[in-house]
Amino acid sequence: SMRSSAGRQMMGLARLLVLSVLTFTLCMAGADLRRKKRDWEWKFFFVTEEADFPQKIGKLSSNKSNANTIYVIEGEGANTIFEVNQHGDLNVNKKLDRETKSEYKLKAQLIDKTTKEVVDGQEDFVIRVNDINDNFPVFPTIYKGSVDERSPKGTKVLTVTATDADDPTTGNGKVGYMLKNGTDLFDIDPQGVIRTKVDALDREKQNMYLIVVEAKDMPGFQAGNIANTTVTINVADINDNMALHKIRLLTKDQQKDFEIGVMEIEDKDEEQNKDPSFTMDSGVSRIFEVVTNQRKDGVLILKEALDYETKSKHTFVVYMREDTLRSPADNQGEASRTQVEVVVNVLDVNEPPVFTQQMYNFSLREDARIGTRVGKVSARDPDTAQYDIRYMINDRNCPVVIDWKTGDMKLQKELDREHVRSHPFHVIAEEITPEGLGLKSHVIVNLEVLDVNDNRPELFIYKDLFVCENDRPGTMIGMVSATDRDDHKHAFSFSLAQPSANFSLVDNKDNTANISVLQGGFEADGLHHYMLMVMVVDGGSPQLSSNTTVFIPVCKCGENRESRYCRPAKVGASVSFHALIAIILCILTILVIVILIVLRKRYQKEALVTLGKNSGEIHEQLVTYDEEGGGEMDTNGYDVSVLTSARNDGSFVPIPAMYAVVKKPTAARGDMAAMIDVKKDEADHDRDGYPYDTLHIYGYEGPESLAGSLSSLETSSDDSNLDYDFLNDWGPRFKTLAQLYGVDSLDDGYLY
């Protein structure tokens, strides 16, 4: 006891000594720091948010301050939110909100009022806004959760979270949670996690809970801000109820429908958790089957047709179970309702004939003669009446004919396997009743045509077959093979039908043969080609053969048998009599069409010439006359004195014709080239002038003619005032001229 007391005293002295040393060290360090520190004596200021203003929050202090110095601040909120007087008192001039800004950084300096010089340099300081509990907790969203029924105790349902804008380092910003209802079923922890408190949630009793969650800041204190939210918790269904039949006995009268009836199922679970499966005795499972529909009810269907004559009533039990049922089931006491007795009464109906087979298959050789028996089909009336049956085939193209009484079938058309390999057709069976014909049914019959070796093999040549001048004996110049339309196993043999002195044929025993040079010495300028007769024998029974002539041209070749020049071989071609007749008819038809086209064009040309001659007869005569140069022989065709008298008739005053307004050069002999140049220049530059087509005909007429000039270009009169109707009295020869100079023509404003 004394030792322990002395020990405690020693420990106390040691602690006192250590504290003394530390105190001395700190004092020395503080003295050193004071020697190095600036003359400012502040660093932080504090102000409470939402406090009244103006309010003094502190004082700036410098040991260099005197009556001739002032304090100046700058930075965030300087001289607006915060102000300082010449004594260094720091004031706030408005309410502050910490959630908007929690601190302000400023700088202070001491300057001389007179010189404005800095007495004490800038020093940073911070004004911090103290938080008050002025914000409520906030739930950012609406919460919904789900939990399976019968979930274990402590199962997590969901997590709720509320936020508070106050300082989280203080109780103002911390949030606690509490349930306002449902505390017997659910619980919530400080982090907002909601869990189950029981393991007996039952969706069939209650499938949804509305839980009010309270969020409160300053947890642990009665004071504080509160916010509430309602959380929806859905109880999800599981398969914990047995599916039960609503009825104990199902009786149906059945004829021939596919679906017999529906066995409705009662299950308290949701549809997605219904999982019933149905079984029945093996004796009836081959006839009936139970499947589920969209509502998960049992649908009894037929797997095969029922026969009233065989069995008129079917009685059996359908059992139901669920593989995903959670045991023990909530309705365990109703297990007896998981089975139902079914009675199906078969009703008699008039049924069509039934064939002894669902499909008949027969076969015949393709060389079978007409009348050969194919086979027999048979059908019966399944009803008690047992009516007679008649048979028929409605396909006109069918190669088979059937006996309507017995169902025996015979061949009525020749068969060709290479054309049609099989002939499927329908045989119809129809009841013969006292009232007439009854019900019908049909069956598919397939007649397969068996192959017979009736096609000769055909030779096939690989690539181009030719021989070069420089080919040596033993050189292979080509390969041949064969094809056959028959279906037997192809085993062709090859040989030469006629011996050859120049080539040899070697059978490769693989349905090919090689053609090789037997002896060389070929000349491309000599014989153009060689012929080789190849015989092919097939492997059928009986064996058939064919002979084919192979033409082998002689070519001038380079190295590696490169064909450079081959003179074409003469190939004989034969044309049948019918093809020759068709060719001749085509040639005659084309010839007749050509002749008709030529005659039509000639007729059209003559018609145009005939029509044009009457309208231009006098005009052409005048053109010829104009170019005569005044020959007196022209008077034999016309009485030019009449023209002269008509022109010199004083019954009218000549006025310039329309063509007279066209400018023309002075008529002078030998000046034709100049006139042509002038007219050409006018045609090139005067786009609005009349077409200059026949002016050269009437511009210069023969002055030696007794009739004088007939051109309107020689007169200065206007044709619009002249009457040329007198030309109609001169006879048919002047009819066209009267039309040209008549009133109708002049009214149009153009002379045609």
TrEMBL record:
Pfam families referenced in this protein's UniProt entry, alphabetically: CADH_Y-type_LIR, Cadherin
GO biological process, one term: homophilic cell adhesion via plasma membrane adhesion molecules
Keyword tRNA-binding carried by entry: no
Membrane-spanning segments: 577-599
Any GO molecular function: protein phosphatase binding
PROSITE patterns, sorted: CADHERIN_1, CADHERIN_2
Ranges where the Cadherin domain occurs: 50-139, 139-278, 260-355, 356-459, 467-570
CC annotations in GO: adherens junction; bicellular tight junction; catenin complex
Signal sequence bounds: 1-29
Localization per Swiss-Prot or TrEMBL: Cell junction, Adherens junction; Cell membrane
Membrane topology, from the record: Single-pass type I membrane protein
Keyword list, A-Z: Calcium, Cell adhesion, Cell junction, Cell membrane, Cleavage on pair of basic residues, Glycoprotein, Membrane, Metal-binding, Repeat, Signal, Transmembrane, Transmembrane helix
Reported function: Cadherins are calcium-dependent cell adhesion proteins.
Name the record gives this protein: Cadherin-5
Organism of derivation: Scleropages formosus
Name of the encoding gene: cdh5
